[in-house]
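Internal tracking record. Fields below are filled automatically when a chain is submitted to the structure queue. Please do not edit lines marked as system-generated. If the sequence contains nonstandard residues, flag them in the REMARKS field before resubmitting.
Queue: standard
Priority: normal
Entity type: single polypeptide chain
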Amino acid sequence: MIYFDNSATTPVYPQVLEVYQKVTQDYWGNPSSLHDLGVQANRVLDRSRQNVAGLLGVLPTEVIFTSSGTEGNNWVIKGTALEKRVYGNHLITSKIEHPSVLRTMKQLEEQGFEVTYLDVDDKGEVMLDQLVQALRKDTILVSIMAVNNEIGSVQPIREIGRILEDYPWIHFHVDGVQAVGLNQALVTSERIDFLTLSAHKFHGPRGIGIVYKKKNKKIQALLSGGGQEFGYRSSTENVAGIVATTKALRMSLEEDKHTETLRKELWDFLAQQEAVRIFSPKNGAPHIICFALKGVKGEVLVHALEEKDIYLSTTSACSSKKNDHSSTLGAMNIDDAWASGAVRLSLSNQNTLAEVAEFKRVFSDLIKKFNLFRYK
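SYSTEM-GENERATED OUTPUT FOLLOWS
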């Protein structure tokens, strides 16, 4: 099997599974309990929080564990809106965000908030001049993803941070779910107030997310109850999942240019095919290529490759089963004939050059096959 759908989810590292199993067996007490079993579990939880903070270059009190990137995005956006509504009701995002951001913004619009959706250029990058023009005295949040999940365009987060230095009252949220493994710091600007991550995107377990919340930034709590996670997300912590996530994050942040090599091999091959159009920018994230084969629907190509035991997806995994059109390609003004054929190939450091070579062989055969069917 060749698995090229790592932007949808990643296989868990074996070492991470070992950690998860050990913590599940040895530290199963409730970390809020006063007895020794609870104290031991709480120590393990605290150590993981400190380790994650060290990896991100932030304070332990700025690390909050959630259940997913979607939960984190919902919390930061809605929590900011509720907390800062007395100061303003205007939010800014882009047209190419993940559904957990775009649909949350639409929900807030129904509640009376105003949202500006920034355009992107032909490389899928946010237009900074539009951001400057959109900023207002009543703007309370700017939410921009670090890496687009469909085409892999890397957004100008540092530049946005510089612009927002003149607007200290505005919360700056970065969806960093696709950014782990870029060989750079995740908190790329001191101006970032919130960063969301999801463990299953970097070889960790499902059901664990991370939110970086800058100290002194006020936001409404996500869940009310027993006061866990500094009172922001009340719920008994998944200690084993959190420790395993910490291990996965450490492993994934180790410098590794392997995916860049694989992507270049695939990029050069696809660029040579006359019937292929690549939508991802050449200098995009080192693990994503979005492309289409002329005249072939994306789902048809996905299943044709699946028959050869090669797995990739149509654009976003969150939208593929619903047959939703790509919001990113739409924002880039890609015509429907091409956009309907878009597929996303996404890599991890577990993929190999041998797998790339096999993909090239199979894809070359498929091009010939589809051309034969088309011209019969």
